[in-house]
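Final report, results section. Input specification for complex C-07:
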Amino acid sequence: MSISFDYTNALGFMKDSEISHLKNFIYQAHSWLHEKNGAGSDFVGWVDWPILYDKDEFARVKKAAARIQNNSDALVVIGIGGSYLGARAAIESLSHSFHNQIGQKTQVYFAGQNISSTYLAHLLELLKDKDISINVISKSGTTTEPAIAFRILRNYLENKYGKQEARQRIFVTTDESKGALKKLADKEGYEAFVIPDNIGGRYSVLTSVGLLPIAAAGLDIDQIMLGAKDAYYKYNNPDVQTNDCYQYAAVRNILYSKGISNELLVTYEPSLRYLSEWWKQLFGESEGKDQKGLFPASVEFTTDLHSMGQFIQEGKRNLLETVLQVNSPKIELTIEEDPENIDGLNFLAGKTMDEVNKKAFEGTVLAHIDGGVPNLLVELDQINEYNFGELVYFFQKACGISAYILGVNPFDQPGVEAYKRNMFALLGKPGFESEKLELEKLLQK
Amino acid sequence: MSISFDYTNALGFMKDSEISHLKNFIYQAHSWLHEKNGAGSDFVGWVDWPILYDKDEFARVKKAAARIQNNSDALVVIGIGGSYLGARAAIESLSHSFHNQIGQKTQVYFAGQNISSTYLAHLLELLKDKDISINVISKSGTTTEPAIAFRILRNYLENKYGKQEARQRIFVTTDESKGALKKLADKEGYEAFVIPDNIGGRYSVLTSVGLLPIAAAGLDIDQIMLGAKDAYYKYNNPDVQTNDCYQYAAVRNILYSKGISNELLVTYEPSLRYLSEWWKQLFGESEGKDQKGLFPASVEFTTDLHSMGQFIQEGKRNLLETVLQVNSPKIELTIEEDPENIDGLNFLAGKTMDEVNKKAFEGTVLAHIDGGVPNLLVELDQINEYNFGELVYFFQKACGISAYILGVNPFDQPGVEAYKRNMFALLGKPGFESEKLELEKLLQK
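Structure output:
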């Protein structure tokens, strides 16, 4: 087993037969994904990607990563949303818990994922005495956050190394043929990698978007793609009765239809935090439209059992938990006997911390079911590159199916432009003059 | 102005007169807090704390912090929930963005806030060549997570320094007179600080629980207490029409009563992440009971506008946003002109990044109101120690009032024991034998 799904602990809240009722809808959704003829079908390139991806570009990614590891203390990855979360999820899940302070050949930092001048100034201060490279990731090259960060960091690099050497230290991941960043890369001779036209940001971690930063962090991207490829075959079966991935899609929709409004992704390892953030974008952006969708949130247990635990146990009953459980930790620690036993922990002596973590998990599931919270389980044997690849594919496919069952286009994001248009207008961007006056009037109210 | 509250952008979703209807209830809630005669009145010590706190202990905290700064490269803070989040919120909000890598005399790490052996083993590896001290924070001394971490770290310290010197490097924050940790501190002669009996964990950041780690991180705790004291007087007025803090409590209840189920705390600075986590515990644990309460979640903008933005703009309409906005950044960066302007950003040339961040905020508020999300605003002039103290008090008091209006006891947490009981039983803790069999049967189903 690498990954499995279990909804036994939701059966107090639904019946098995409810899944059967969805069987044909899921068959239809499966066919939309594979035949590429459903809503948003221009963006289902990720479905076959694990078997069809460009092997030459993949080899170039590995070479570029090796070059970065050889000449850079740090790589700065510039991107936001889907050009950011996947790589960060992989690096934090799979590396040392303090990977930028210990045990990593090339440190990895992120920029352009916010507009905080304090953050960027602090980052520049931290980088001062380090040799660095940059990987800027943007389909258009004009997304405000990464474009600002890249303008500043490119300038920094050219001042530090001169234009010539800076060119060797800037790697661009962008559109194959058009857009501002592609134009700049061609002009300057930056090595460029492709964001495929038929794969949207939140489905792009298995392309160069995610793979270059992940490889530069010293992780094994062959294994990631192997895990994804095996997942392609494993979840390539239209029958919801035997396809774990589709069962997850079905069950969350069934629970949603009963009035559940929030799905909490639960983890028991702090390194999985950004995997949860990636998951939140994947499901939130795919399903949160047309005034519907499960609101995706995440909690880190047992940490958050001491903050959000009370609400989950006894607060408003509109919650569903999906536990992403890793069976074996990377490192074990054993709890030792203490002759004085003032803390009363000797009943744990000889046990590993992870055994305690697992009992906390089991005890929590039972407590939360008792409290009225259906629990789903996605189980991994361990967190490694292979399983990361499989897990990404599992969630991506579950998400596509789930959004189709919900009756929305899983692959558009019409709502993300609204704040940008307002921001551009308020900033005086040419072409937004009339909106500017209107918005400023609203703000003065 | 240091902090202000504005609900103008919720007025499309409610009327001013709805606040008036709550006037007497709020007067009542205010009186419960100040007269200490409402539900949970044994735990309202935090209300007068900013004027009544123990000045001798406060002076001892500063001396202990100075000692730690003098002899330790790193302080390990062991605690969970309310013994963890407040200190971390302060340290991350007020320090350098990369404070453990640059610019801090004594680094601060956290342990005992989870049961991950991988995390703790990695932390031990990181600490190997550093001189360290420990601050263990636990009312009872038997809470599983910190007790395990302390057993391991105390052992580590005694092996590294010998029992004698280790005693000088262990600081205990616990009950004044009883409990396992107090007993151990007395026996070993550890310097001990007090968790007051009448202040619950989530209201305790302004006691030694938060103050010792915060001071050890080099932050000015005099200013924090001054801000809290000024807040005590500022929000000490029972009239909701003129008390910003009570208005926040009123408005979120009004919106909840209309069917809003999730409140998102929105920030535009990544350093505020743990302030949001602290806020989530405060409100979630105070209100999430008796099958009710607003579910507290948090988003970091503009980062999450590229992940959760779609859902917030157009997903299921059960959301309320409370923006915690900081007017002046710690550091400014100016966007420079680029003669080639391939990225099209020259319309921003000469502007600071923070101006762009502010326009993103304004544009987002307008877009989200348009999308049907009421917006509340808590505004700070800047993020510094004084304002942190005021903000903590503002939220604590708003939370007490809000939970009373909701009709729950703001100061208990009856639901957090459920998972612990199950965990103890499954771990074979003496006294839980019959539960063990029962639970194991349930798990085998």
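Residues 250 and 381 of chain A are 24 Å apart (CA to CA). The mean pLDDT of chain A is 97. This concludes the modelling results for the funded period.
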